[in-house]
Amino acid sequence: MLPFLAQHLLEGLWGPFRLLESRLVLSFLGCISCAFFTWILLPRFWDRMPHDRGKAFVKGSEAARGKPTGAGLLMTGVFLVCAFFVMPFYGEYALIGCALFAIMLTGYLDDRSSTDWGQLKKGAFDLLISLFAAWVIAKWQGTTIWLPFIKGALPGGAILLPTWAFVLGGAALLWIMINVVNCSDGVDAVAGSLALYGLFAMGALLYACLGHEIVAKYLILPHVENGASWGIVLFTACGGLAAYLWYNAPPSQVLMGDAGSRFYGLLLGIAVLVAGNPFLFLVAAPILFVNGGAGLVKLLLLRGLKKCGLDTRPPLSSVDNPINPKNFATDEEAERQHPVVKLLHKYRFPIHDHCRKNMGWSNPQVLVRFMLLQTLLMPLFAIIMIKLR
Fold first, then answer.
1. Residue 160 belongs to what H/E stretch?
2. What are phi and psi of 119, to 5 degrees?
3. Whole-angstrom Cα distance, residue 244 to residue 38?
4. Taking a C-beta distance cutoff of 8 angstroms, is the pair 381, 207 a contact?
5. pLDDT tens-digit series, residues 355-379
6. Rounded distance, CA 151 to CA 190, Å?
7. What is the rounded CA–CA span in Å between residue 63 and residue 53?
8. What is the pTM of this model?
9. Band of the pLDDT at 1, cuts 50, 70, 90?
10. 388: exposed, middle or buried (C-beta count within 10 Å: 0-12, 13-18, 19+)?
């Protein structure tokens, strides 16, 4: 809205209003406004939020039980309003906003439900929304991609994909990003901090490199015409996430829940798709991908083994103060389990659970060490993606 007002109404009233056409100024305004309103509103509304039920198989979940959760509802609302004011209004952004709201809503309804929705139901919703978001990007952004180690015939070394391939591959990427962020949201501030790193990195890449025609040409990368506008979106989201982390720092006062983790996972995936290189997830979220991805792989393996008739319950001794002891195997039952099941339960996933239970790391140690690792890996993968082509 502000770019339209500056161009058609405000500039004639006072010359400096033309600054509202600057993508850099709009990025700053979006980030600051989203941070301010999220910071102000969160403590005023968290008493009305649902309360965390705890997770049956997660170490330390009793510490989160009873805390307000589902803060992603407010964070998404503030983000969408702020983005509306600082973004040029195009149909593409409105449809992506609908997808982001939908993924947040499915997470929030699960947060406030008295019983867990179940992985199959949530996974199906995630897939449908991912397919829709990938289709929107394919329709408005095109279906060209660029890859490390390979140069295509199109400008910037891009490769043109069939629409169906882009949509299916893009939906798979979005589904994975949604779930790796969600799986990583088990330690205070870890998922939020790592997602903040990723959003800022992708915003900078789209704004300063891919969105800048001269820089993109110099780096031999495809130019993303509206890359600077997408930078505004991501920097605005950074502001809201930073404000949330003010209250989520250990010991946390509020949790974003599935409503927030699914929203930020989808937004990170969309940023990677818009940038045109599916391997940029290694820049946006290397630790999130390894941490949450390991949890996803373990979950899929255990579900497959359970379908084969095997007892896949974790040992009762592996969890302190379990919510429902019936969900666990006694020591005698665990001893009779299949060797593959024993191996999967020996190493806890997501990896942050293994670090806390098996390695004795505290929550702040997990947070700081994961952030340090991501700080080292992000520029390394960025150099590989951009220069080794």
1. strand 159-160
2. -65, -35
3. 7
4. no
5. 988 899 999 999 999 999 999 999 9
6. 36
7. 10
8. 0.91
9. low
10. exposed
Q: Which residues pair with 147 in a beta bridge?
A: 150
- CA atoms of 166 and 173, how far apart (whole Å): 10
Residues 385 and 279 sit within 8 Å (Cβ to Cβ): yes
Which secondary-structure segment (H or E) carries 174? Answer: helix 163-184
What are the CA-CA distances from residue 215 to residues 9, 66, 139, 152 (Å)? 32, 50, 25, 19
- Count the Cβ atoms, other than its own, within 10 Å of residue 346: 11
Q: 242-269 in b/e burial notation, b at 16+ Cβ within 10 A?
A: bbbbebbeeebebbbbbbbbbbbbbbbb
Question: Environment class of residue 309 by beta-carbon count within 10 Å: exposed (0-12), middle (13-18) or buried (19+)?
Answer: exposed
Q: Hey, is 156 helix, strand or coil?
A: helix
Provide the 8-state DSSP code for 151. Answer: -
In sequence order, the β-bridge partners of residue 51 are 68
Taking the C-alpha atoms of residue 30 and residue 159, their distance in angstroms, rounded to an integer, is: 33
